## 1
Amino acid sequence: MAEKLLEVKNLCVSFKTRKGIVRAVNNLSFSINHGEVLGIVGESGSGKSVSMSAVMGLIKDENAEITGEVFFNGEDLLKKSDEELRAIRGKDIAMVFQDPMTALTPVYTIGWHIREQLQLHSDISDKAARERAIELLEEVGIPDPAKRVDQYPHEFSGGMRQRAIIAMALSLNPKLLIADEPTTALDVTIQAQILDLLERLRKTYNSSIIIITHDMGVVSELSSEVLVMYAGRMVERSTKSSLFANPQHPYTKGLMNSVPRVDRARTSRLETISGQPASLLNLPSGCAFRTRCPSAHVACTEQPAFISDSNGYGAACFLLTQGARS
Amino acid sequence: MLVSISILVFLIFFATPGVDPAARIAGRNADQLTLQQVRATFDLDKPIHIRYVSMMKHLFIDRDLTSYVNRGAEVWPQLTQAIPATLSLVFGAALIWLVLGLALGITAAGARKSWIDPAIGIIGIVGVSLPVYWLGEVVNLITQGRLHATLFRWVPPLGYVPFTQSPSGWFLALLFPWLTLSILYAGIYIRVIRSEIVGLMQEDYIKTERAKGAGEKRILIKHASRMSLITVVSLFGLDFGALVGGSALLTEVVFGIQGVGRLTFTALQNFDLPLIMATVMYAAFFIVIANAIVDLVYAWIDPRVRRG
Amino acid sequence: MLPINARSALMSDEILKVTNVSRVYETSGGGFGRKNKVSALDGVSFNLVQGETLGVVGESGCGKSTLGRIISRLDTPTSGEIIYKGNDIAKKSLAAMRPLRKEIQFIFQDPYASLNPRRQIGAIVEEPMRIHGVSKDERRARAQELLEKVGLDKNSYEKYPHEFSGGQRQRVVIARALTLKPELIIADEPVSALDVSIQAQVLNLFKELQDEMNLTYIFVAHDLGVVRHISDRIAVMYLGKIVEMGSVEEIYNNPQHPYTKALLSANPRIDQSAKSTRQILTGDIPSPLNRPSGCSFHTRCPIAVPECSTREPELRRVGAVDVACNLVL
């Protein structure tokens, strides 16, 4: 059986704040195999971004406490020193962020940035690095790459910048690319180009992708696997097709109903999830979704266990234990 | 802008009610005859705009404008002799405070979790709190007075030694003035640079750098500090321009350096309008130049500012 | 082009007639003092019937936000007419516009920037009434009423914006917009900054209020799903012009303009089973500073012919929709 690429076990990230302890990520466990695309879906406060930052060792806050295990290629990343992690970041695991407009130091050219990425992890000469940079820019569809490699980030449009950033991220052939809302700041037609690019590159490089997003459509376009988060916990894990055909968790159902769909008949009212998103400082006891759930009952004052099948798919909801799973 | 400044200075001098320029020039208890002579010599009877044009012409074109106080002493040479002293003082001090500011500011920003940051912070506060004239006098007390015979034997007497006359003399005479003047600015710059860098470390591009696998030291220097230069250049331009224009006056007075600051001070004390006009115009001019240079340097360090 | 609920009985009067509105900006970046002209809006025309919702959709540089600001007269058009209830308000002075501000309201995108953080919610909602001279007691009563109407607690009155979430703040913004019983509300991306589940709540609120108060909306957004849900008619914009306009059904089910088709196709779909190949446009969206000649879409258009780079198409009625395309006749 193929070894899992990334296996997260009981990851917890909490922050000490003046108002109390905030559990941004609470007992998150999941895995992803080679070549898979996993979409992590959630709204604000779900913990989706924080969890992946923790995986990469990017949380620099002194008030943060991170526990659990994160196995990448068999080794626990959380036990590694920052020096060891630096060798992995950018080389084996790469990350792309949301806003291309602020993602690159403005005083250095795109070519310089790509060269820096390459030289941080290999002994490549300046000349060879520049050539590689031009190759990469061409691969991601940037026209006139030999000229643009010497241009500054502000001379690129948002979409082009994101392409260059993706090129840089993939320059060392990482096994895993984590993309945090990579298209949210882009126009729809540009978003389509970027998603198409990611899919194409994934096939070429055979890398796995974790895409963090709030957009169900993006998840559907790109991923084969989905993980839904709410208030720091994983509430559902499934393949994409199962999730959309037959969501198990009431939050997932509510979320999907909230989205006005272009491919369905119009309704006069959207079915909404009542109430406000959970405040991490003031979580309800037991299931955090309890106060907004249309199916909540007495048992929900206890935290429901994540009921999963042999593949790890399932949901954290008492409704499942009652044989409601179809 | 320079023209408006000159007009303003002129008006302040001549149009201030209750002040009779002729009386000022002639001195106390001058009799009517002397006053009339003064008025004639200095065209004080003519309408104000003619006087203004005449003064400007003498100052800039003929360059033979004479002082109101020392009859016959030309203003222009006084200014040109004072400029090298001020420039030497300010350049040297600027070099010192920039180096200190950057070195300590960056170190403090990078060492935030240790004792080094607060220690540097204290140095910064001390620098900002010591008034130049007090510090200067204390320095003089020690180097010229108490310990002059022993530890500070090599310190020359107060005053400026032109470089052309003796390079080593020039250096030694300026050493303590440099240190004194730079302490205040070093304090300011240490604090500004440190807080600027700390703020910049929260930017998105820093996150990208960490994701690339760059180490904290590299990020601090090649990215955060490099970006902080934008603010530093702006601040430095203002400070440098003002100092060269004559703001180093207190330092010059304390150390007996015959620079522009000191000249301005003397001119003001004596109500010597031509000299005041010359020094003020010189100062304004330098500030304009300094701003223009700052704009150029901006374009050099921040590609976003360049045109096309 | 019938609306889908019982508003139809009330909808009969034309409330807004926009004719050939343009907005040209001059920038100083032309070098040697020359000014660059940027055409943010170019000859936009449409009508609006009372009680309906016009959704305006498009990407960066299309001018939809400018259009919203121009119609609500937060900005002045360079040319064209904006006839609101029979009066041309395009060139009215600020003073002349004042009484009309009761009837035409604007809602911004960012709920975090739209509310003064130093004032209480009650004071914020009362402000428009205070400006127009409503008495203190009446103001308070109405503010309380509105806060309840938008789904907020009665004791929100004393609270400050920072005590509320984004969605709640947007409700406050809506309450404020309603204080003087407006007729026309122009909303610029009012739900874009909100989480999906909250977005749905606020959209429902918009609809309820419209039914109750017979409001007319111009709803500017980039999210095709949101626009489809809330609108009766849709205008699709590209680089300052309307390229297609029609009822929601027509636009979404039977788009005519190649840009509309590409836009709908680019929208990430939840349902992947209908495997129609996505049409991905190449290249960047041109900058309004550098508009392509002829039809401004021709540089990215999959069906462009040589004529398209020289002839600028007019917006004309073709079948059930208005389209501006040289090839749709």
## 2
Amino acid sequence: MGKYLIRRILTAVFTIYVIITVSFFMVRFMPGDPLQHLVGQEEYYYLLDTDPEELESIAEKYGLNDPLGVQYVRYLKSVVTLDFGIAYSNKKPVVENVFSCIHWTVLLSIPTWILGGLLGGVLGVLAGWRPGKRLDCVLTPIALFLNTVPSNCIGVLALALFAYKLRWVPIGGMTSGIGTGWVRTLDILKHMALPLSILVLFRCSGDFMLMKSSVSQVRHADYTTTAASKGLSDRKILFRHVMRNAMLPYMTSMCMQMGGLLSGSMMIETIFGWKGMGQLFYNAVSSRDFPTAQFCFLISAFCVVMANLLSDILVGVIDPRVTVK
Amino acid sequence: MKRALCLLLSAVLLLGLFAGCGKQTTPETTAAAGTETTAAAETETTGEAPKKHVKNLVIGTTTANTTFNLYGQTDIFGRINYVNFCRANWIYEDENGDLQPFFFTSFEISEDGKVLDFTWPTTAVWSDGEKVTWDDIDFTFRFLKDTAKSSSFIHLVSVEPTGDDSGRITFSEPDVYGWLSGSATMQGLLPKHVWEKFEGTDDYKNYTEPDAAVGCGPYKLVSYDVDAQVSYYEAIPENNYHGEITVDSVTIKTYADQTAIMMALNAGEIDCYYAYSTPIDATLIDLISDSAVDPGESIYAGEDQITFGMTRPAGSDYQFRLAVTKAMDWNLLTDAIGGGYGEVPRAGIIPPSCTGYLDGLPQFAQDVDEANRILDEAGYKDVNNDGIREFPDGSEMKILIVPQYSKKMDLRNRIAEVLIDNLKAVGVNAYVDQEIIVSSEVWESNIQAGNYDIAIGYTTAGMARHTSAFRYYVYEPKPGTERSASWLWGTYTDEEFNSTVWRMLNASSREEYVSCIQWLQQEAADTLFGCALSWTSCFYPYRTDKYEGWYNRPSWGVVNDELWYSLTSK
């Protein structure tokens, strides 16, 4: 187990280093002059006409004229010290921008992860244990539908119906900026109701299908038949034998979903004006704000690698055979 | 199991409450929040009926509501200050493009265009309660010249008081009109007591302390909530530069996108929309479902345009250029660009909402037969009977179309498709180089070197205001500068044309500007070195049920310099 752990941790560290390096070169070799993106196309040409020295000083300030090697070393240093410089889009420190968004993403993603995971898991077990029964017949088509329709499509429709037509919830945003304390908390809950519901529905449907499929596979396994022949009740067979064995893919999936907790749901955040990490990343890419995009990408990649590592460890604990291989 | 579930659900709820309560702090109150303004109407005893003030105007935008810097141009604070909001700009431009007094209560340009005499309001106050003094005026010009290094003040010689409420600005060159019309409408007074801490090396544009928002415009920033993307403003009655301020307070709210803006307008959450140079997309206008919402339609000052490669075999031939304009499906182009809202342009390139528009030039119209006849007569014939015309010397003719690399690439690619189809219909083989449309460097090197037969570009409303679309056709660099370090996309080498564009940009009076821009329109009509593709409408919607006195300024919308003094409650 020890060797297995060390091997996994080293792989994770190496993967992170590769990601950091790839992200550096990927951004540098993207089409487009970063200086033009930095000041905007119209402003760039205006300055070229009226004040070329100002353009030169901006390039100097952001180190755009330095050789690639110098930029790479500076970049590695900045990753270690979490100093990603100033965002092109609003001229504020990138880290400040990211930290002002991250808690809003967590506010949506953790409840989604827990509620969606629990609901999907439990309903999936029940549907998989009794295939063809009413619960399965009702939930499976709904889950399939949700799995095949893009979340942004449902998001826009839900926004138009519940926020615009029925006026049950506000039209986007995270808060109306009214009041403090409980008033503000309730206002935030009101704003998050719709995006959270949609995210939970989508997460739930994915986990439902996965769990249903896992349970369906193990319910006819030899040990299940043996347990039944010993006279154990359905409940005991399900929770003691079937669920435990069906849990492995579900656990892996839940761990992998943890990797997305900080990166947010780009589409849903954008549609609902939720100023989280997803929208920050989306805006950074749209406006070619390289420092912000890079930091968002690294956070996301780091979380995925860590989630992968956690998943490997947990699977190793649940099924020690994996560590021997 | 049940207990575990209950515990987990409670944890989720607590997390939600914790995150919500984490931002329970009252909206960050800035130094600008000093006194409170009463909502009561403040009318002078002139015998006129008192104006019914607007208590709180709610403006929706898609621009971020995060940075509040009087000198900055980012975010909605920087952008709404273009229309004299928290900043008092020196002057403003009215609907006819005429320069009107604002902070300068009056101004006069000397005959040689080098001296500006002005008066200023001694009653004006800063939003933190300090009085505006001559020192602030003197400081601002020194700041702009020495710290911000504004190109408008390269030839500034002196700024001196000539009386208690008057002053004189002297340049060594006739730069006064160029500065007034080019940037003085979007540039205003800075408080010395806040900005004197900055020297040349300081990054004053990124200054974010609360006093960065202190201004002497008709409004002051009271508070803002970055999480809610809302900011709140109150009127400063003393700063009534344009008359009685009739809108007592303003709330600016940022939405995720224009669709959300349209929903908010229909729902009555906001009263109007504002975003600098970003009207509501024409395809969203059909979302208006409430009769109280006016689409706020006006003619846009910017436009999409084409430039002919005048140094290449096809583009250098007037007959070819004329045939192209006859082959183009103008109605389809207008639909593609303006979503059906707009009109087929005339030959002078710039639309009627631009200063110095020359009326009476011919309007384009598709005439495929005429295009074929012109090409035949000019010698562009299909000599090898493959359905494609050749150059008059019999060599292969392939027309390179280069769409401008930009955020709106998809629209310009669509325009290129229409042009390719239109030219194909008259036997001209046109194409787009795939490498050019995926790389800004490749596009730029081609456009700078004049490697195109037809270039598709665009002019924003901001550029159209003074610089105009003609700047995109220039071939010769600005007199006294080097070609290698210049932004030059045009290929029309005519000396008079080039010198006229630069003379227009450095005009020392409105008369000179208008005379130059009208000559350029006539030249465009006569030689067809380029043409507009469509004159589109733009939309800045607003609600008409609660307030009256809206004035929809073409290309800017209802949120303009005059709104704060004209809007009243019904």
## 3
Amino acid sequence: MSAPITAALATCCLCSASAWGAPITFNTALPVQTGGWVLREQAIGLKLADDPTAARRDLRVAGVVSVLGYGVTRDFALFGMLPWFDKRLDRRAGADGVRRRGRGLGDLTVLGRLTAYEHNAPGQTVRVAPFAGIKAPTGRSRVRDRHGVLPPPLQPGSGAWDMLGGVVATWQTLAVQFDGQLSYLAHGKAHGRRAGHVARLDGSVQYRLWPRELSAGVPAFVYGVLEANLVHAARDRAGGRRDPDSGGTTLFLSPGLQYVTKRWIVEAGVQIPVAQRLNGNALGHDYGVTAGFRVNF
Amino acid sequence: MRNVKTTACRFAVATLFALAASAAPAQQAYRIHVDGLACPFCAYGIEKKLAAIEGVERVDTDIASGTVSVTMAKGATLDEAIADQAVRAAGFSLRRFEALEGAGAEAIGGRAR
């Protein structure tokens, strides 16, 4: 069960770095002005209830991800991301059901992004930016309920130091924007367990739906967004053994909408798993929803 | 005789006002062509950087043409190197820098020198 949710939460982690008019579910290579700040608040909801077992597990995750970005130099930007999660797992146990729940601040991620290639032309830009970061175990990872210590997927924090890195490319024009990203999240070990590493390939197209014709000045844009996320999570390891019911590959399609002004953006999207190949009895995704805003200052 | 004196006095005052107006420095305006500017959210950074330059009174972006018009306070001028620095700090590239003829905001959209 844990690897799919790890993959889903990795989505939250990486998408949070996209603090511009940009993809909803992952990063972008667009610039942050030197000395400028970007704040992003994103509410997320995930449902994972595709359970092949009789336990009929139903995992719901609600959360808020706060991101603060800062343009250190023209080409280098730093991001800090802090999530808050409310995770709830219902499962059948005999005639009754059991509910377990974990809430709290999650792990802090600090991410640096460097623009390595840039080509600017009238009304368009192409950028390529590698990024790397670290996820610190700031969230509680030994939360208990009346049944004992919660299982790792229900803990707000992982207890482990994780590393992440990748490269993102963006081609933005006045009418349409394309983003692509390749990334890897390597989990550290905590409490005798290591969550499976996550590799992902993302693509996004944002098409200006309105205004059809650009007027003078800086009109607000409405973008229609379509994103695809191919996420592969390796099996978890605990006590030196691989968990056969963890890990797998999921392809998500994520349609969404963005309203973009000079100072702020509001956006919402739905993440739908269109193909899932999960190991053993790993719990599959049903859907994810995202809504949030970003502010430039 | 009295009427002649009054007329002469009015003429002198009007002349003085006209001279003062012509001697006052005009507001200089510039049009900056920016490469890489392709979304409203990106325009904020470039406006903020240009507005922070001393003497800049007004900044107007036209995203369709990729231009930013800068109006200076009376007597102030904008150096191309400083404008280039601001555009670069915002993450974009300066393609062309034009000083516009005429006074202030009225000059924006006016003839380039």
